[in-house]
Amino acid sequence: MPVNPVFSEYTSGGRLYVIVRGRDPLLSANLSKLSGCREVERLTDDILVVVAETGANVDELLRRTAGVTSVFGAEIVEARLGSDDDDQNEIFIAGFKVAAGTAEITAGPSRKRPVILEPGLAFGSGHHPSTRLMGRGLEYIATHGGSFPDPVLDIGCGSGILSIVCARLGGRHVLGLDINPTAVAGARRNVILNGLEGRVRISSKPIEEIKGSFGLVAANISPVILFKIIPLLPGLLTAGGILIMAGMRGAQMDDLLNILWKNGLDGRRQVYKDGAWGGLLLQI
After folding, report:
1. Which CATH number fits domain 14-83: 3.30.70.100, 3.50.50.60, 2.30.40.10, 3.40.50.620?
2. Which of 105, 217, 255, 264 has its CA 20 to 30 A from that of 112?
3. What pTM, to 2 d.p., does this model score?
4. DSSP 3-state assignment of 14?
5. What's the pLDDT tens digit per position in 86-117?
């Protein structure tokens, strides 16, 4: 499996998590021998997480992980950066302050209330540039063109932060997907913390099994995985639907636009930047 370089310039302040699907009992032992690997955790019978420090040569780790998984009939299903940053600066996503899970839901207008997240989740704290880029795109959607798109599909929802933001911006039917059962459980708790059980549903169902049409599809996932699922997206978008994606660096944005075009996904677009990271909003 070819793996695009994603993380080579991101060298501090976090860890790389590579989620692998495979059942062979020897898979974990062989993955743990990879240079740069910190640990391998088995989450379920067929899901493992390879953890590496981002200061390691993680591009090479991704390639070697892909090599090991192919030998054992397994596959990489996601690769993400999780922040270990203890920065206490306030984080805002799409105008919403992100607060710790100990905060209480307050009364008043939705836009004035914080998004509450359970502390300690690996994915989706709001610190990473790609999450901020997604927030910029979502805020633009909410402030231009009338009502917020509906339904919403959030691919690789992690902590559920973007699913929650979409609901707070006006989404009435939001479906968040994640392959990591730990993330799914955490996201469901966060939905409850924010009082959005009636609007947001979190599922571990693979995207290949998702049926229906969505007015907005959000994907804050690595290009490695994003490029693989793009052929599925035309069948998931309503006419005039919106795609919003983040996690690209450098030439990966050009690669993304080319793959989207080859799959019939073209239209009005906006590109967002945060340092070397890029995000894309595409209205079909």
Report:
1. 3.30.70.100
2. 217
3. 0.77
4. strand
5. 444 678 888 888 887 655 555 455 556 789 88
